Amino acid sequence: MIFKNKLAVGLLMGALGASAASAQSLVYCSEGSPEGFDPALYTAGTTFDASSHPIYNRLTEFKTGTTEVQPGLAESWEVSEDGMTVTFKLRQGVKFHSNDQFTPTRDFNADDVIFTFDRQGNEENPYNDVSGGTFEYFSSMSMPELVESIEKVDDYTVVFHLTRPEAPFIANMAMDFASIVSKEYADAMMEAGTPEMVNQAPIGTGPFQFQAYQKDAVIRYLRNDDYWGDPAKVESLIFAITPDASVRYQKVQAGECHVMAYPNPADVQAMKDAEDIVVMEQEGLNVGYLAYNTQVAPYDNPAVRRALNMAIDKQAIIDVVFQGSGEIAKNPIPPTMWSYNDAIEDDEYNPERAKEILAEEGVEDLQLKIWAMPVQRPYNPNARRMAELMQEDFSQIGVDVEIVSYEWGEYLERSKEEDRDGAVLLGWTGDNGDPDNFLAVLLGCDGVGGSNRAQWCNEEFDALIQDAKVLPTQEERAPLYEQAQEVFKQEAPWATIAHSVVYMTMRPEVEGYIVHPLGGHIFNQVGLSE
Amino acid sequence: MLNYVLSRLLTFVPTFIGVTLISFAFIRVLPGDPIVVMAGERGMTAERYAELEAQFGFDRPIYVQFWDYLTGVLQGDLGNSFVTKRPVWDEFFALFPATLELSLCAMVFAILIGLPAGVIAAVNRGKFFDRALMSTALVGYSMPIFWWALLLIIVFSGNLQWTPVSGRIDLLYYFPNPTGFMLYDSLVSGQSGAFASAVRHLILPTIVLGTIPLAVIARQTRSAMLEVLGEDYIRTARAKGLASKRINGIHALRNALIPVITVIGLSVGTLLAGAILTETIFSWPGIGKWMVDSIFRRDYPVVQGGLLLIAVAVMIVNLTVDMLYGVINPKIRKR
């Protein structure tokens, strides 16, 4: 346990005999333990909830509750005409936290920005291999290829030189891996011979300061009274790690925590009916799909793919597999994302017509393998059950389905193969709220043989998303993405199945909680009524 | 006695080597590549894959990897978790006291109730108490842990509000945990009410984890007692006119204890290694859940290191049990 002596808030409140529902400390029943506290090293949402959101800031920030990007530690930014350089003007007077080992001697400045990214991309940087140094998000967002160099113009001006114009770059800077760490702290810890403390006893600029972590049990934070933005509403924030969903709910009911994440779908109705419980909901930034292999006959024929899509009873899947905690997907991007094309009409559920189309296309005695993932994911809580429902649906139109599955790692690898036999159940959770992060990654020509499980390369679609990627503003990009979604619907490389619905359960005294579409749980502006 | 202990200790060596080899092989035999699992849907480039492979040492022949692991183990280095990047050793010792504390409490609970219950049932063989007790034990033994735990939580924490729902202590108490044993740490913390809170938090998990061993101990005690009560020397004792309390309590129970202690020893091992469900439900920060999560993530160092340390703990318990046999039955230690 990492412990700080000087702040024994517990003592004070213990003496007052207050319950966990004290007005000054907010208790969140979280679903699991963070892997660590340096967000750049990890990829799990649970880790980001405990690290990047309370403790850190980024150059740009997502406005809570939206995928919109707003100024963070950068007050403003400017993209050059050719899109190849981005200049950030940094905020002045921003203080880093302090702890027992470290007290900052200076405010946040350009050195911290350069250090934050240099350690992730530069193998020469002494922090590149500290704490196992695998900066997976930095790599998977193609940052090493994208960023040519970072230049410090003065203490409060930083220029990123890019290798190509890339509109989503500004949103990438708001992602968790881009959380700004203190160079001064890192240097001090390196000198003390304990560089791993950057990960274990984090120092950031965020609204809460890390206090202590007891593995798999409790994480404690205190309000950062020197915070540059709106200060947090509560004095302390406590994460009570509670892996079982039913137990989390019992704890909320008993007043042992104020807010909980990920309720059992089966409990949601009872929660909504309970008087002293508030349930919030929003579509998650994800999509679950069935990807045909569009390179293998007869699935290379869009008419056949559309016919199969018409045979799937999606509502039944929502009811049975998601137990209501999902919404039918008609587009490859979720409805909370900008450029979502709501004008598109989903394929009607019409097995009779589907059968006719297959006959028209000369397809008979079709046999299809459906790959069912062996794991539970937010976009697909039970792939095996989903595949069984589809098997039944397809048998109605004379298609014989065999369900196959592999170990998760093998599943991910094998499903990439271009000559794969069968249609794959899979999905995606968004990273930066940018449509490019769905459409290019999952459906672009570059992804064939990789993350494009439909092995689908359509010139018209690809040209649209490539063009959209280099345009500077959202207004200019959105129409291209809307058009791309039309092409997608027409060509039907996937059956889009569902977006999960995210529920948050809390006590009525919790004020100001906003469900964030990017999936994080953020308590910066959450308060408790008396 | 010393020779006896030493000879038992010697058997540790091959067991230790065997466990090291098995734990190393076990996780590698499971299908699934930890790097691919780590990347998830996002995937990674072939170059990145090769880089990580080299970093984790998977590109070297398997016997070289085993040799490195073995030499590391002998120097007390179990490696770092792929996931948290922290030393396996540190993680284990941050979590093990919680498991040990809970397991010991559960065992004490099971023995304190199971042993007398078994004796009383045996003495009253065939009577109402015996039948009621044995049926209850059967129910306890077959009870699904998950359901039993949730039932207790809903009744005692939810409806009656007698006990807290989960965790080890009320979150308002905040003090250092030098030993990791919450009962002790709360007692020396000097914070009023902390110890009581820790005890209250232990009640339900202790009952849940102790239920199966309790049932096993009660049944085992009963059958061992019945066997002993039928022996000639007991009949002789009765014929001599000894008080039945003395016969049951000293002559019979002492001899019936050997198989019971075997069962207790085995149960402690099971508890240490198998408290996973109880730990998950009661948000108890122990090693059970840590191990299972690591298997799913293919976190090789944690799985092999964790298995090894658990095996050592179980070996120590078995040694203790063996020595207890010696104490109870002098014939054994002279062998």
UniProtKB/TrEMBL annotation, chain A:
Residues 1-23 form the signal peptide. It holds the Pfam family SBP_bac_5. Transmembrane segments: none annotated. It is found in: Periplasm. CDD domains: PBP2_DppA_like (cd08493). InterPro entries: Peptide/Ni-bd, SBP_5, SBP_5_dom. Residues 68-448 form the Solute-binding protein family domain. It comes from the Bacteria. Belongs to the bacterial solute-binding protein 5 family. This is ABC transporter substrate-binding protein. It comes from Thalassorhabdomicrobium marinisediminis.
TrEMBL record, chain B:
One of its GO terms (cellular component) is plasma membrane. The chain crosses the membrane at residues 9-30, 92-120, 132-156, 198-218, 256-282, 302-328. Keywords: Cell membrane, Membrane, Transmembrane, Transmembrane helix, Transport. Its main location: membrane. It comes from the Bacteria. Pfam families: BPD_transp_1, BPD_transp_1_N. It is a multi-pass membrane protein. The keyword Membrane applies. The keyword Transport applies. It is found in: Cell membrane. InterPro entries: BPD_transp_1_N, MetI-like, MetI-like_sf. GO terms for molecular function: dipeptide transmembrane transporter activity. Residues 96-325 form the ABC transmembrane type-1 domain. Belongs to the binding-protein-dependent transport system permease family. This is Peptide ABC transporter permease.
